[in-house]
Design a protein that fits this description.
The chain is α/β, with parallel strands linked by helices. Helix content is about 30%, strand content about 25%. The chain binds ligand LLP. The site of ligand LLP has 22 residues, from helix 10 and helix 11.
Length: about 425
């Protein structure tokens, strides 16, 4: 459920007509609904009410500090993967004791930043990383909280680019080596063993891969207990999918039931790192039709947003629904919806049945709240687009449209190039 609905054939975000915002900020832009984002958090968190838990929003899904603030206010933490994401999480007021740090390639300066900040734990992805974190913590006279991210070799049955828990993927430490890794960590002076984690992939629409992963984690918790190693936090990662089209992912209640059931009577705080399920359907991309054209009988709708603004269709062949901002009776056509970028891969849909829109019409690209703006770039020297948040009847520019000056900020021409 979300709060992008039609009233009198006009698309609204909560109580604000989308067209009104488009008139004021121009197109394209990202538009988020506070009510939807809040509701999704509450539903997810509510599903785990029976167990101690911490929801660490995956900052990579949507990194705008206002969006992070929405979750911070509801007691959410953050799953970060870089120093930049840590900086954003802190700016949004997220409590460091609710921050977990994942990723295979943490740099020394990023580790130091996280150690000084006092985050809850690092999810360790290799033995060498463990050694480096122990050494960095020693230098700073601190102890680093850690969990080991295992690679459970489970097929999440999703797009190959977003599956992460298969043995051929670069993530985590294999199950067979994990107990040895904990023993090694136990001997380190500056390491405090806190957790065990895994993340098997994204946009997962079946429950069984999650169940399997939890079973593997609980087996390892049992093995570690025998070795006198106590796990206080079990981090199940993120990955729960959303309906972009006709997928029917399990609702958070079913996901929670499966996880709590498979975990048995383990007395741990459960950590989750959801991204898409919290933010995906809380945002849309609003774009305007620039041109309509026909090539050899094929219809093209050229819109003013491009693959640099929303990369998912180009990168993964991802499906996003479209909704015209104004519903008017129009004949249906089959068209490719494409952007202005000079690449054939710059498309939002191919061969889509849709109303035949005209130059100037506004189109909403749905389910764009996660991995939308956060994956955008300046390719083709296009300034990045604004982000707007609606709270009931009011709307707020939470990120300005970049200017041409922003595009060249930090660039300079060295003297040797000025000589004739
Ligand atoms: N935790 C870790 C360690 C992750 O790597 C990820 C996502 C998440 C949590 C959040 O996963 P979610 O709940 O959002 O599925 N750009 C792709 C998705 C890449 C996901 C990467 N890792 C897309 O647009 O579909």
């Amino acid at each position: 459920m979300n709060y992008f609905n039609y009233k009198n054939d006009e698309l609204y975000c909560e109580e604000v007509p989308v067209e009104k915002i488009a008139q004021e900020v121009g197109t394209p832009f990202y538009l988020y609904s506070n009510r939807t984002l809040t509701r999704h958090f509450d539903v997810f968190s509510g599903a785990f009410a029976a167990v101690p838990h911490l929801i660490c929003f995956a900052v990579k899904a949507n990194s705008n500090i206002s969006i992070l603030k929405i979750y911070a206010k509801r007691g959410g933490g953050a799953d970060i993967v870089s120093g930049g994401e840590l900086y954003r999480a802190l700016k949004a007021g997220i409590d460091p004791s609710r921050i977990v740090y994942s990723g295979v390639g943490k740099r020394d300066d990023e580790i130091d930043f996280a150690l000084k900040t006092g985050i809850l734990l690092f999810n360790i992805e290799s033995l060498q990383e463990l050694e480096v974190i122990n050494e960095r913590a020693g230098r700073l006279g601190l102890k680093a909280g850690i969990g080991i991210r295992i690679n459970p070799d489970i097929n999440p049955k999703t797009h190959p680019h977003i599956s992460t828990g298969l043995k051929e993927n670069k993530f985590g430490i294999d199950v067979a080596s994990s107990v040895r890794a904990y023993r090694y960590a136990q001997e380190m002076k500056h390491i405090d063993i806190k957790g065990l984690s895994c993340h098997i992939g994204s946009q997962i629409t079946e429950i069984s891969p999650f169940r399997e992963a939890v079973q593997k984690l609980s087996e390892i918790v049992g093995l570690l207990k025998r070795d006198g190693i106590e796990i206080r936090y079990l981090d199940f990662g993120g990955g729960l999918g959303i309906p972009y089209d006709d997928e029917e992912p399990p609702p958070p209640s079913e996901y929670a039931e499966a996880i709590i059931g498979a975990a048995g009577d383990i007395a741990c705080t459960f950590i989750f790192e959801p991204g898409r399920v919290l933010a995906g359907n809380g945002g849309i991309l609003v774009t305007r039709v620039l041109y309509t054209k026909k090539n050899q009988g094929k219809n093209f709708l050229v819109v003013d947003a491009g693959m640099n603004d929303l990369l998912r269709p180009s990168l993964y062949g991802a499906f996003h629904r479209f909704q015209p901002v104004r519903l008017t009776p129009k004949e249906e056509i089959t068209a490719d919806v494409v952007g202005p970028i000079c690449e054939s891969g710059d498309f939002f849909a191919r061969g889509r049945r849709m109303p035949s829109l005209a130059r100037g019409d506004l189109l909403a690209v749905m389910s764009a709240g996660a991995y939308g703006f956060s994956m955008s770039s300046n390719y083709n020297s296009r300034p990045r687009i604004p982000e707007v948040l609606v709270c009931d009847e009011s709307w707020h520019l939470i990120r300005e449209r970049e200017s041409y000056e922003d595009l060249v900020r930090g660039e300079s021409i060295p003297g040797c190039l000025e000589k004739v």
